[in-house]
Amino acid sequence: xxxxxxxxxxxxxxxxxxxxTNATIENIARENPRLNAFITVTADAARARASxxxxxxxxxxxxxxxxxxxxxxxxxxxxxxxRTTGGSKIFKDFVPDHDADIAVNLDKAGVVLVGKTNLHxxxxxxxxxxxxxxxxxxxxxxxxxxxxxxxxxxAAVAAGILTMATGTDTGGSIRIPASFCxxxxxxxxxxxxxxxxxxxxxxxxxxxxxxxxTVRDAAVSFHAMAGLRTGYVPPNNAxxxxxxxxxxxxxxxxxxxxxxxxxxxxxxxxxxxxGARIVDIxxxxxxxxNVVARVLLLAEAVSVHQPHxxxxxxxxxxxxxxxxxxxxxxxxxxxxAQRLRHIYIREFSKLWTEVDCIFTPTTPTPAPxxxxxxxxxxxVDEDVRLATTRLMRAINVLGIPALSIPCGFTKAGLPIGxxxxxxxxxxxxxxxxxxxxxxxxxxxxxxx
Length: 448
Hints:
The protein has 448 residues and is of the alpha+beta class. Helices cover 38% and strands 17% of the residues. It has two domains: 3-225, Amidase signature (AS) domain (Amidase signature (AS) enzymes, Alpha-Beta Complex), CATH 3.90.1300.10; 244-288 and 337-441, Amidase signature (AS) domain (Amidase signature (AS) enzymes).
């Protein structure tokens, strides 16, 4: 069942929250040895919470569509009384004394927390190959990465363990797992969901958002995370007639796996068949914006983790290398990057006079193998990390909302992601477009 189907079943008294929660805990016990998607499981607390949510509903208290729904938090979201590791050996025993704002908002919405999901160490990477808690594996092929840094959340939802998990996105960390695991991931407009109580990585580029099975599940989860009491959910047969969908003629389709290109272009054809108008556009220099993003993140991440650099042996080699690189960034480089950022934001914002949203691939390839350092993209060898983030990193600099949905599969059965970009605060519009494509493409029901 999807999240909203589970919500309907709860209200029809076909299932209780406790039954959903017990089934989720059983799913974790069955699947986690294979996928390593969870670091911490809170079975007893979850059962108690589910019973409380059932009691509320029996007394006519209904907190909304997430009431009684089992969820998981990425393990850098503070949870009072429950350890929050950040995927790090340094924080392996850290237990916060308060909840993050998104945990508070989701609690108010009635969710049942079943555990904390595995991730790339410090959320600083795209593989979720964690040296301290073990590698997360992709449900579609356990020899492959699920993406990162929210890999545990993506794998858990894709495997059907639960219907929603939280994620964070600094350079693609919600959208990469969504693409590689064949689920939906929403990175909202910067600052729309509070970051308070979430372990930071890049002060000016961190975003919070949901990872779910479907677009409509993402919509209700997004509004709950943002603390919005009433929120837009795309209706059945969402209408996108007349919407102007931008298709970049530069950069985004230059170096792609052939099957990725074909699937995304098929999604474009689907949008056309639904009445949308495709508009060719030229985007600003995305390579240059990606450079800005790398400078900003190197500097900000080392600022965050400077206090921990005296424990070098307790930090994974890949993350330590990036932190050391960050120490080489000069203050003038950082200031110049922020200055260029504002120039590119102004340039990119001009596109919203021409189009309502933009279609791109999410990742240029399907999921690579665990441990794979390079991959061929369009006949060219590329670093896995740089290639995987190439189509997403700039969007964190711009701070605009981005939605990744599955739009097809390779012949080998690996998911392919479509990225839908919108202007600032255009979440409802890109959710509507995503729901229309999701309904027409009919790829969501396929299971690993």
